[in-house]
């Protein structure tokens, strides 16, 4: 009969074989401190129109509500930093969206990991999550010893910066738990705060989601982007990487080895004119497996129009 130590080693070995860059494990327990922070954040309206953030509050802070009898929270990181990048003078897309939709890629890996655990360890109850369920994945990553939460709200690692997707597997299997990451290596640096085009990053590791470019270009479903955002998007029309690009720790970022995240050629090389002339049929064909489909063709067109018009002094809503 295998021991907890052996089970832990097996799981971390399987995670590496599936291509995950890091794997850490924390004891499943209620996140009381995070509950207070989340409640305050919501009360201040920093979630904007993202009403879903108010839903399932208890599920977000208590893993046993998601998996009855949960004992362990396994956190996995997958690097997405691209080997090639867009011309900085072009219309910009956040790097996480360069290749195939990470939800599809990581969900498959999580399913395979859970299947391996059940095959080689036994009947284990578990659920995998990747940015699509009420899980505070950055907190679990910190509690699993993988890194610290930076001033821009992202998980930071000394080895590779912050260009990682975070996935979570909650199980009822007891495992050996990693020590929480206790240090904060941001120090007095405020580069992310100073560089944020919309002043969305506050000086206490809080991000006002209702002011973030990613919110306006992806989450906001209104037909028009508020006029007060005129000239503040710095050519970003789907997401934003500014706070990561300026972070000193990302000088250690290495190109991902995950081929599914290889950039879509058109995305890297489209000129502004080509983006503007893109038809809906072409959009659906080129970006059928891309995160860009989240905004739909109409949303992409809205964003493109806003970014281009604001630089021409004709922002919508003026």
UniProtKB/TrEMBL annotation:
[4Fe-4S] cluster 1 binds at residues 186, 189, 192, 247. Binds 2 [4Fe-4S] clusters per monomer. It holds the Pfam family Fer4_16. It comes from the Bacteria. One of its GO terms (biological process) is tRNA queuosine(34) biosynthetic process. GO terms for cellular component: cytoplasm. One of its GO terms (molecular function) is epoxyqueuosine reductase activity. [4Fe-4S] cluster 2 binds at residues 196, 212, 240, 243. TRNA binds at residue 221. It is found in: Cytoplasm. Cob(II)alamin binds at residues 60, 131, 152, 155, 166, 214, 240-241. The active site is at 131 (proton donor). Residues 173-205 form the 4Fe-4S ferredoxin-type domain. PANTHER family: EPOXYQUEUOSINE REDUCTASE. Monomer. This is Epoxyqueuosine reductase. It comes from Paraflavitalea soli.
């Amino acid at each position: 009969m295998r021991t907890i130590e052996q089970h832990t080693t097996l799981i971390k070995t399987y995670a590496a074989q599936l291509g995950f860059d890091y794997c850490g494990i924390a004891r499943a327990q209620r996140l009381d401190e995070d509950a207070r922070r989340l409640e305050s954040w919501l009360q201040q309206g920093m979630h904007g129109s993202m009403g879903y953030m108010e839903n399932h509050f208890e599920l977000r802070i208590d893993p046993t509500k998601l998996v009855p009898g949960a004992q362990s929270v396994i956190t996995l990181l997958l690097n997405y930093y691209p080997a090639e990048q867009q011309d900085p003078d072009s219309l910009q897309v956040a790097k996480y969206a360069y290749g195939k939709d990470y939800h599809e890629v990581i969900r498959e890996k999580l399913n395979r990991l859970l299947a391996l655990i059940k095959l080689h360890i036994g009947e284990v109850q578990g659920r995998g999550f990747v940015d699509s369920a009420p899980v505070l994945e950055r907190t679990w990553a910190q509690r699993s010893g993988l890194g610290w939460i930076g001033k821009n709200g992202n998980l930071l690692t000394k080895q590779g910066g912050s260009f990682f997707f975070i996935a979570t597997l909650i199980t009822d299997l007891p495992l050996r738990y990693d020590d929480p990451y206790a240090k904060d290596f941001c120090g007095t640096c405020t580069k992310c705060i100073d560089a944020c085009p919309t002043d969305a990053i506050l000086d206490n590791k809080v991000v006002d989601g209702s002011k973030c470019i990613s919110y306006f270009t992806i989450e906001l479903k209104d037909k028009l982007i508020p006029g007060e955002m005129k000239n503040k998007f710095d050519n970003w029309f789907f997401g934003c990487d500014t706070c990561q690009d300026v972070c000193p720790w990302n000088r250690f970022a290495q190109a991902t080895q995950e081929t599914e995240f290889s950039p879509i050629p058109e995305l890297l090389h489209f000129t502004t004119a080509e983006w503007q002339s893109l038809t809906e049929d072409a959009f659906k064909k080129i970006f059928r497996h891309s995160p860009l489909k989240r905004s739909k063709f109409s949303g992409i067109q809205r964003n493109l129009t806003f970014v281009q018009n604001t630089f021409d002094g004709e922002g919508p809503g003026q």
